[in-house]
Design a protein that fits this description.
This protein has 606 residues and is of the alpha+beta class. Among the domains are: 85 residues, Calcium-transporting ATPase, cytoplasmic transduction domain A (Distorted Sandwich), CATH 2.70.150; 142 residues, 3-Layer(aba) Sandwich (Rossmann fold); 112 residues, Calcium-transporting ATPase, cytoplasmic domain N, CATH 3.40.1110. 52% of the residues lie in helices and 19% in strands. The strands form 5 sheets. The chain has a 7-stranded mixed sheet with strand order 10-22-21-20-11-18-19, with helices on both faces. Strand 21, helix 19 and strand 22 form a beta-alpha-beta unit. Helix 3 runs antiparallel to helix 4, helix 4 packs parallel to helix 9 and helix 12 packs across helix 13. The radius of gyration is 33 Å and the shape is elongated. The chain starts with a helix and ends with a helix.
Length: 606
């Protein structure tokens, strides 16, 4: 399309130049008309098709009427220049949208193609669609759970990021409910299916994205709205200018038809049809230079109108990286407590274990650790430095009758006991991003009235993090459908809403919100596809920057609209009374267009 457009522009300009120097009037006219057709044929075609659809008064129709009017009065360069400028503006807008906005693609492969059914001690692989409620399925380590169900045999850890967005693996055992899309990490699980494939959590996430996207109203282009009123009025006035003075007053027909055609040339909304989309295009370009990808000009408008922002927690408000917040020893040094714990977690790939090893960062002597026994959902037993050691949660301590003080602080608590003697605990929590607090303050300065945080994490943890970040409200322990339900209620209450997230589970909310903003650096592909705005470096401060750019863009676009309309009205009046000639008509069209274009490019450059 771009090659065709460039070829058409070059050919049209070449033919126009040849026509200008051609001494034969007939040949010159033919070349000009050919140039006009090369550059404006698709606009002519659209106008004709719209006539048959009943869409008469749109910008395509007015462009055709105005430029053909220019051809009739032998202002061939004017007709070509007007159509060329219109096409450039239209093409720039198309490029902006094509580069940044694709239809939401299929989500990442969260639904496996195969399910393993266990029947009469035999394993059979079938499509998930053929599994029924009550069937028993077997999920091996590394496999995705194909359908929702309840564990009837086995203990394991699940990666539930695709469902809840929580980055810490979840411990599950018999009678626990598990959701499709989760990944089994450790041991074989036997699961009794409780929902059909079409009703499973993974399927629902996909459906929610499609439904939420369809609910989002498409912003109709301002010029199309304007042309529906402006075009019929202009055409009627042109007819009246030609007919009334000649029929009723008996004035010269040629003179008043000429004035009517000048009126049409002047009234062509070239400055608007170019400068408005170009203004938005410049705003989109400015945002991209700041690492903010906005997938369409309508989202620039929506950013300026939103008064409420809803955030996901993990990876958005927080780093999504777990760190030790406190080391609290009991009759032992902090260094010794940390060393014992790090030795116990030496071989584990669990995020909590990794955070402990990162904090210790010391040398290891593998001969000092033996008899490691992992206890699902509790922790581990091991012989460390020749002593029986317990490392895990409160349940592990209670099961082994260890006397300890249970801690109620926010975060994951790791208790340590050596030879049945309690030695202290570690508190591990997800760290709030360094820029989060300033970002929330900055957004509130940009006229954001309310801030919310929705998370699949524990309610108390969510409330604590929201309070620390300066967020007004927090909702915890939410699955994707519950997040979407909460978002719907927020939209009903608050009007236009921005949602900020990074995970696959955030996709329905990103698609449903008036503006969905995804963290591009760490965001899942599905979240980036569903979002309307992508922050490339994951800095929340970029959100207030995006709002600022949007406000400036809308301001520049309004300046262009007001200037273009006022200039048109003044010259239109001068044309009616016979003062304006074709040169002034050219200024009212091309000159005003160039001024508004320059205003857009210069004002939105910084």
């Amino acid at each position: 399309m771009k090659k065709s457009f460039i070829f058409g522009v070059i050919l049209a300009i070449t033919l126009s130049i040849i026509s200008f120097f051609c001494n034969n009037e007939t040949y010159s006219m033919i070349l000009y008309i050919l140039a006009y057709l090369f550059i404006g044929f698709d606009i002519l075609l659209k106008a004709v098709k719209n006539l048959f659809k009943g869409e008469i008064f749109d910008e395509n129709f007015l462009m055709v009427v105005a430029t053909i009017g220019a051809l009739i009065i032998h202002e061939y360069p004017e007709a070509i220049a007007v159509m060329l400028l219109y096409k450039i503006g239209e093409t720039l807008q198309d490029i902006a949208v094509d580069r940044s906005r694709d239809a939401i693609k299929e989500l990442m492969e969260i639904r496996p193609d195969i399910a393993t059914i266990k029947k009469d001690d035999k394993l059979t692989q079938v499509k998930p669609e053929n599994v029924h409620i009550g069937d028993t399925i077997v999920v091996k380590p590394g496999e995705k759970i194909p359908l929702d169900g309840v564990i009837i045999n086995g203990n394991s850890m699940l990666d539930t990021k695709t469902v809840t967005g929580e980055s810490v693996p979840k411990s599950v055992s018999e009678n626990d409910t598990v959701y499709s899309g989760s990944i089994n990490l450790n041991s074989v699980l036997e699961i009794k299916v409780t929902k059909e494939f079409g009703e499973s959590t993974a399927s629902k996430i996909l459906e929610l994205v499609e439904e939420a996207t369809s609910k989002k109203a498409k912003t109709e282009n301002f010029i199309t709205k304007f042309a529906k009123v402006y075009t019929p009025i202009v055409c009627l006035l042109a007819v009246l200018i030609a007919v009334i003075p000649t029929v009723i007053l008996g004035l010269d027909l040629r003179e008043w038809v000429y004035r009517a055609l000048i009126f049409l040339v002047i009234s062509c909304p070239c400055a608007l049809v170019i400068s408005v989309p170009l203004g938005f295009f410049a705003g989109l370009g400015n945002a991209s230079r700041h690492g903010i990808l906005i997938k369409g000009s309508n989202y620039l408008e929506s950013l300026t109108k939103a008064k409420t922002i809803v955030f996901d927690k993990t990876g958005t408000i927080t780093e999504g990286i777990f760190e030790i917040q406190k080391v609290v020893p009991n009759n032992i040094s902090e260094e010794e407590l940390l060393k014992i714990t790090a030795y116990g977690e030496m071989y584990s790939n669990h995020p909590l274990a990794i955070s402990i090893r990162n904090k210790y960062n010391g040398p290891y002597d593998e001969t000092q650790v033996s008899d490691i026994e992992e206890i699902a959902g509790e922790g581990l037993k091991a012989k460390i430095f020749g002593k029986n050691t317990l490392i895990g949660n409160a349940k592990l301590m209670n099961d082994n009758k260890i006397t300890f003080d249970e801690v109620n602080e926010i975060g994951t608590i790791i208790y340590v006991a050596v030879e049945n003697d309690y030695k202290g605990h570690l508190i591990i929590a997800d760290k709030i991003k360094d820029t989060t607090k300033n970002a929330i303050k900055s957004m509130k300065k940009m006229n954001i009235k309310e801030t919310y945080m929705f998370t699949g994490d524990d309610k108390n943890i969510g409330m604590q993090i929201a309070k620390e970040a300066g967020i007004d409200y927090s909702e915890g322990e939410l699955l994707p459908d519950q997040k979407l339900e909460k978002l719907e209620k927020t939209i009903e209450k608050s009007g236009k809403v921005i949602f900020v997230g990074d995970g696959i589970n955030d996709s329905p909310c990103l698609a449903r919100a008036d503006v969905g903003i995804a963290m591009g650096g760490i965001g899942a592909d599905a979240a980036i596809e569903a979002a309307d705005v992508v922050i490339m470096n994951d800095d929340l401060l970029k959100i207030s920057e995006a709002i600022k750019i949007s406000k400036k863009t809308i301001c520049v676009v309004k300046q262009n609209i007001i200037f273009a309309i006022l200039a048109k009205l003044i010259v239109l009046f001068l044309g009616i009374i016979g003062i304006a000639d074709m040169w002034l008509a050219v200024f009212a069209d091309v000159g005003v267009s160039l001024i508004t274009i320059m205003n857009s490019m210069i004002s939105l450059r910084k």
